[in-house]
Structures are given as C-alpha cells and as structure tokens.
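Async update (no meeting this week)

Hi team, since we skipped the sync, here's where things stand on the single-chain job. The sequence we agreed to prioritize is pasted below, unchanged from the tracker. I ran it this morning and attached the output directly underneath so nobody has to dig for it. Comments welcome in thread, and please keep replies under the output.
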Amino acid sequence: MLRTVGLCVIVISGVGCGFAMSNELGRRKKMMEMILRMIILLRGEIRYGNKSLYDAFTGASGKLEGKYREFFILTAQKMKENMEKDAGCVIDIEEAEKTASEDVVAQREEALAKQLSEMKRRKKRLVDPLQFEMSIQAEDLSGYVPAFGWEMAPPSDGQKKTLEKLGILPDAIENAGKASKILDRLDKRRREGLTTPKQIRFLESRGFQHVGTWQFETAKNMIDRIAGNGWRVPSGIIPAEYRG
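Output:
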C-alpha cells in the first residue's frame, strides 16, 4: 500500500516538473523564433526593398508587436537623431546602427535599474509565500502539487495584483493553482480573525515565531506596543519565547 502511494506521489511530481520544464522550453523556443523573424524582416527590407538601415528598421517595426516593435522603433529613432547630429558629415551606416543600438541598450539598462530598485523596495513590504506557509503551518500549501491543466499555468495578472494587495510576494508563486489556494486561505483567515501577511512580516522580522497562528487583535496589540516604544520590542518580552 505504502509503495503504491509513494509511486503515485512520484508520478504526480514528475508530471508537474515535466509541465514546468515544457513551459520554460516553449518560452525559449518562442523567443528564438521571434529573433529569427526579426532578422528575416530586416534582411527583406534591405535586400528586396532596397532601403536604408533606418528605413528598414522603421518598415520592419510595423510588422512586429509588443516589446520587439518598440525596440525597432527606438533603434530607428536613435539612428535618425545621430544622423541629424552628423548632418553634412560622411556617415558610416554600420557605425550609425551600432551607436543607435548602444543608445537603446543604455536606455533600457537605466529603465531596468529603476525597475529593480522599485522591486527591492516592494519586496521589503511583502511576505515571501514560503515564510507565510511556514508561519501558518500549512502543510497543504507547502506540499502543493498542481493536478489540473489550468493549475499548472502561471498565475494570472489578477491573482498577482490581489496577492500583492494582501501582502504576499506574487513573484515566488509558480502556478495559478498555488495562487488560488493561497487566496482562498487568506480569505478564510480574514473571516476567522487571524493575522494578516503584513502583521506576520513585521513581527517575525522582530524575532517572533509562528505569528501566523496568532489572532489579528493579538498581533495588532503587540505592534501597537512596539510602535509606542519607539519601534523597539518592549523590555521583558523575549520574541523567540513569546506565544501570542
């Protein structure tokens, strides 16, 4: 009997891992296909349309979508700006392309640096799902394996937005099934008057243990006491030994 159960667990886990790897390989394949399409479009604009590099980028952008189209448009704009700066001078087309691409990359790196900075600030305000699961001692969440196709898909934008609003870091949740179970658990905890993820993050950062098992009011009173003491744990309280 135990062997049968163990075999079932292994098979289910293997299926889940297989789907995850399949999704990643599919994403990479799609990206490589898009890069190849971009190259073919540019070559066609230059060879058969007999266009300049600027016109080739501009023409090809109209046949692309999303971030790829944006990249082609930005590159063409930078090439045009650099050519206008060098008006009256002999222009090396390859050099113009290189300079334009470098400018676009620099802009993207600057935007990415800002985005990463914002992500770090955001992460400090949110609870990692693993911390949440351990704090509330939810074995069904920590050992969750998706069983249906929709559960294996990535979390939806709506799920991510709601999770973040409730204090959970959505980036660390692998699939829609897990996101759905966490959202259901958060709603149940709210109705039962238990601690919120934000209370868990704050108090456990001060050394308290398993704050997820506390009542909402108990955690609120402790946070109020810490706030009234200059955001320091009041003397006489040992966080690691405290039971809410």
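Quick observations from my side:
Residues 1-21 have pLDDT under 50 and may be disordered.
Residues 193 and 216 are 5 Å apart (CA to CA).
Reply here if anything looks off.
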